[in-house]
Amino acid sequence: MTGRPLPLLGPTGATRGAEPDDPLELVGVPVPVDEATFDEMARCLVEEYVRDGWSDVRLLALFRSPFYAGLHVVWRRRGEGWVRGEIATARERWRRPEPARSRGSD
Amino acid sequence: MPEVRNWQLGRTMAYPYAEHHPDWQFAFVFNINRCIACQTCSLACKSTWTFSKGQEAMWWNNVETKPYGGYPASWDARLLAQLDEAHQAAGIEAAWTSDITDREAPYGTFEGLTIFEAAAREQPQQQQALGYLPTDEEWRAPNIFEDVTPEGRPAKDSLGLQAEGATLPEHVAWFFYLQRLCNHCTYPGCLAACPRKAIYKRPEDGVVLIDQERCRGYRKCVEACPYKKSMYRPTTRVSEKCVACYPRLEGADPASDGVPMETRCMAACPGRIRLQGLVPIGPDGSWADDAQNPVTFLVRDEQVALPLYPQFGTEPNGFYIPPRWAPRPYLRQMFGPGVDRAIERYRAPSRELLAVLQLFRASQRVIFRFEIEEGPKVFETEIDGKPWTMYDDTVIGFDKLGREVARLSVEEPVHQRPAPHPNSI
């Protein structure tokens, strides 16, 4: 321990502008982006797990969890109703009814 | 330099060593369409092999969010830029011929320069393979640019355990998760570059290993591996890499019953995106014609699984079913010209493919052969304007000794493990 007073460090780094030689600087990669691709991505993930036999409760839990950031961003941007709709559409398309319902119990 | 045959390029190429091929090749298929980046694979590997001092920033298996993240940071963008410069200097276009009908050249012929050919053009030649040594900063932050937890409390009934998350950027456009480990390449860049000849490819399974006794930590392998899957450990001053969980592969694990068993990262995948195999290799290095081997079937017969950056020229043995939604030019750059065919076949899978996809994570034992028992028709529909019929067939997987280790139907019901030990293995 030193008795010498140390200067307080403030959050100066976060306020500085971009520096191209900083290896941790955000690198821009131009890629085409549209809402349809975003929706297709969400639809594909829903379809994969519906076909795998997941229940609505299990699948919605993934979308609601912020720790599955990819699915969660879909849930937040499009809303739970939209996700539920996509799940229902996938069940209809692939003839994979809700497992709880097909077993006749919850 | 000797000329070696690279089936992924559809031609021969220059490589520092003459061709020698293993009897079997460790290989795997990852279905990107299903991955939700839970990172269970990364932690399974980490907790098995790289939990010690000096290995803090060492992730033999990682999952990165494309096109934003990478471990080490920007690994592929940097090498692609180097290769671009090499092509411009040589006046050569990194193009593929459009003929993709030859089974031995399923992606056409690559007319550009591999990392070995680009390095050989340098005067004087500095490297065996074009590459670079990532900085410590690039290794240090495997999560940088990745998907991160947004601010706010988890919604009711969610799986979140913590109410507070960090406030960091998130990706609101398209993305996909890329699962990465050593590709145990047929023509490894790491092996080519090692000045000590400390890196070797095992004749029994094609696994690429670093002899820890011979290695002196020159890091030429780290520089030359295009996938940056050879890593330096400062505490031991030698390099390390994925060992393909060789005790499991050799059947030495107590749970393996003496036959090859899949690696920890494969076996841990809850999303059923991973399938590992051993494919039979002919004396000339070609994949033996074995359509009942699930990996051979997916890669060579159905051609739905593609190598990662085949243009690098190392003939990687990891294969990916590309994501259906990502822009095609980006995917063609990453997986080569077979992308459109692979996605078309995955969107409307053949009867056999639909059954084989059920083998993903069906068993910890390596499946050497599969059979399909035909089941009843379930329904008819249209996919992409074409009629498509689904059948509830049953796929059966067999281990190396021909014993049945998996039996699943296309409409396999889910069996949920009851509490209180949902995470037990």
Task: List key phrases describing it.
heterodimer; A: mainly alpha; 55% helix; B: 425 residues; alpha+beta; four-stranded mixed sheet; 12 helices; 17 strands
Main beta-sheet strand count, sense and barrel state of chain B: 4 strands, mixed
Main structural class of chain B: alpha+beta
Helix residue percentage of chain B: 10-25%
Cα Rg of chain A: 23 Å
How much β-strand is present in the residues of chain A?
Answer: under 5%
Work out the number of β strands of chain A: 0
Mean pLDDT of chain B: 92
Give me the count of strands of chain B.
17
Q: Give a quick account of the main beta sheet of chain A: strands, pairing sense, barrel closure.
A: none
Query: How much β-strand is present in the residues of chain B?
Result: 15-25%
- Which percent range fits the helix content of chain A? 40-55%
Topology overview:
The complex is a heterodimer of chains A (106) and B (425).
Chain A: H1 12-15, H2 35-51, H3 56-64, H4 69-78, H5 80-93, H6 99-102
Helix pairs in contact in A: 2-5, 3-5, 4-5
Chain B: E1 3-6, E2 11-14, E3 24-31, H1 40-49, E4 62-66, H2 75-90, H3 115-120, H4 136-140, E5 176-180, H5 189-193, E6 199-201, E7 208-210, H6 220-224, E8 230-233, E9 238-241, H7 246-249, H8 264-267, E10 274-280, H9 294-301, E11 306-307, E12 318-321, H10 328-335, H11 339-347, H12 351-356, E13 369-373, E14 377-383, E15 386-391, E16 394-398, E17 404-409
Parallel strand pairs in B: 3-12
Antiparallel strand pairs in B: 1-2, 3-10, 4-5, 6-7, 8-9, 11-12, 13-16, 14-15, 16-17
